[in-house]
Design the sequence.
């Protein structure tokens, strides 16, 4: 073997040894790296079910804008007491879910909009159960005015066990794992019934519905006027506008309607965010 060949063999041997040594160092660094420890912890947590447990027991975060909007609300409505409405909202959420769970409208009998929401839920093909409902917190997310009404949009962090059963068998959800959700609650204050009524009628016209028995509240909601529909200025049956303050029945279809109270904050809607 010539000197040149021997030198080449030595160089290659040195390179190979260096590569193996570098790989060993790299393996040690990776093995001891914080990132790998995180991955190992996550894999172990998933295997043991720890992550699912934490997700099911950690309340959802909320968009708390009270520092911005509460002063504006109090400027417009000095008598507004958020400490009174906060527990009212939380109780209403619990009552709504309890009514669906019980298949009974009685828990929300005092609020026609919540009663309507329960009826829609009970008309579905798969009606969920809600057990051990708990509201962790409620915050103000937004405050705005439109078409003769003022609206406060609130968010609540809610937990419960929820599942759907068919023939005594759970087909969706879990009986033994909690679910964390965020619910939105709409508080409305009617300042001007004429403007609110015109907004409702205008929304129906924009959605292509004719005034009278054929005007559907669902179309008005789809047109982006849920608050105008929800506050009671439309008939819950045919969607026709109720423009007479204190009216007891719809002038088009004769359905009994809830009298509209002006200048009173009311829960207009509760929905899953």
Sequence:
């Amino acid at each position: 073997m010539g000197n040149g060949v021997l030198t080449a063999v030595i160089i290659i041997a040195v390179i190979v040894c260096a590569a193996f040594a570098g790989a060993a160092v790299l393996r040690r660094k990776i093995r001891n790296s914080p990132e790998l420890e995180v991955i190992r912890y996550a894999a172990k947590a998933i295997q043991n079910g720890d992550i699912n447990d934490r997700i099911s027991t950690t309340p959802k975060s909320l968009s708390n804008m009270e520092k911005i909007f509460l002063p504006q609300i109090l400027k417009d409505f000095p008598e507004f007491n958020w400490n009174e409405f906060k527990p009212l909202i939380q109780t209403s959420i619990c009552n709504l879910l309890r009514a669906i769970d019980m298949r009974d409208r009685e828990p929300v009998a005092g609020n026609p909009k919540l009663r309507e929401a329960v009826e829609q839920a009970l008309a579905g093909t798969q009606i969920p159960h809600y057990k051990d409902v708990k509201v962790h917190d409620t915050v103000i997310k937004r405050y705005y005015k439109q078409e003769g009404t003022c609206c406060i949009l609130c968010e609540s962090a809610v937990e419960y066990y929820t599942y759907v059963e068919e023939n005594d068998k759970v087909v969706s959800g879990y009986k033994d794992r909690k679910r964390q959700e965020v619910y939105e609650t709409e508080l409305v204050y009617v300042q001007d019934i004429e403007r609110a009524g015109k907004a409702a009628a205008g929304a129906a016209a924009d959605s292509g519905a004719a005034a009278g028995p054929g005007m559907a509240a669902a179309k008005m909601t789809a047109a982006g006027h849920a608050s105008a529909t929800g506050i009671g200025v439309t008939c819950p049956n045919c969607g026709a506008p109720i423009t007479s303050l204190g009216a007891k029945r719809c002038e088009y279809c004769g359905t009994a309607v809830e009298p509209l109270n002006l200048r009173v904050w009311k829960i207009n809607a509760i929905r899953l965010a």
The chain has nine helices and five strands. The beta strands are 129-146, 149-166, 169-173, 179-190, 265-272. Residues 3-50 form one domain. The radius of gyration is 30 Å.
